[in-house]
Amino acid sequence: xxxxxxxxxxxxxxxxxxxxxxxxxxxxxxxxxxxxxxxxxxxxxxxxxxxxxxxxxxxxxxxxxxxxxxxxxxxxxxxxxxxxxxxxxxxxxxxxxxxxxxxxxxxxxxxxxxxxxxxxxxxxxxxxxxxxxxxxxxxxxxxxxxxxxxxxxxxxxxxxxxxxxxxxxxxxxxxxxxxxxxxxxxxxxxxxxxxxxxxxxxxxxxxxxxxxxxxxxxxxxxxxxxxxxxxxxxxxxxxxxxxxxxxxxxxxxxxxxxxxxxxxxxxxxxxxxxxxxxxxxxxxxxxxxxxxxxxxxxxxxxxxxxxxxxxxxxxxxxxxxxxxxxxxxxxxxxxxxxxxxxxxxxxxxxxxxxxxxxxxxxxxxxxxxxxxxxxxxxxxxxxxxxxxxxxx
Length: 392
Hints:
Structural class: mainly beta
Strand content: over 45%
Largest sheet: 5 strands, mixed
Radius of gyration: 30 Å
Oligomer: single chain
Low-confidence stretches: 1-18, 44-60
Number of helices: 3
Mean pLDDT: 87
């Protein structure tokens, strides 16, 4: 029969054996971790780009997957007999311009207000409070609120372009025998408050947030190239407040941004600082198909190679730029101060300012334009207007 001493000796041997095995196992694990870490470091260039932006996405949470289900009730709204349509928004309503009629709808699809604008070449411009409809090449324009007409005017000179500010002020540029471009500013009640003449062609105008001034993009040709100059005006002064050096591009749009001004040209985006100096230039690789400007973000959509699209998101404050290819051609794009919405043929996406996907929804039908109101998106197709819920 084994003695107690021999039993204790055997137990001590067993414990030593187990400790030795545990030590060897832990040591092997440490070596394995070091080997894997070394391999990751050596091969990082092959896979690091794939994970670019993953941390930012994880910090903001996974992208919201919306179902893209179409609303019922009054939707879809039939526009199959309309030939010229565009969609927008004013205050808490979405708007539809169809041929010569302007409609304001509430969220449920009921018409709140409608107005006839029988113009030959109607152009619609909108701000948060007002809608401007003017007859480009004609003599008439109308300013509308969400529930009524504010005023309407007939001018003696032909209208080249118009713009409406956040406070309801309106800029109208006309052409006459004396000047290539003549600017008139109307306050929210329709009274003329400012005039300015330009010897070159004004291609774009934007009124500041308070209705106290504006910026203009004027274009002239020299040496076979188009050149654009931005002019900043104060409605309380007769002299020009600021004028930039010429930029070799044909102006499409101009807008205020954080600390300066946006200029969208035919071949580049330029951001100027408050003193008129060029802070940032983004040259296009493809043909510009759609764009949207807010105070903090610029969103540009392009027709890429092979029928695909490309999206660029440019930040005004940090000068950050995000560029990515899209699987399909981009139909429309919209930028708020914190989000960029992208409409493709089979889905609609929302990106944050850094280009990270934050929400998406599949679409079964091809749409041309859209309007965002809170957690609802209104989609303009070729035959109908639809609505989907879209949480971000």
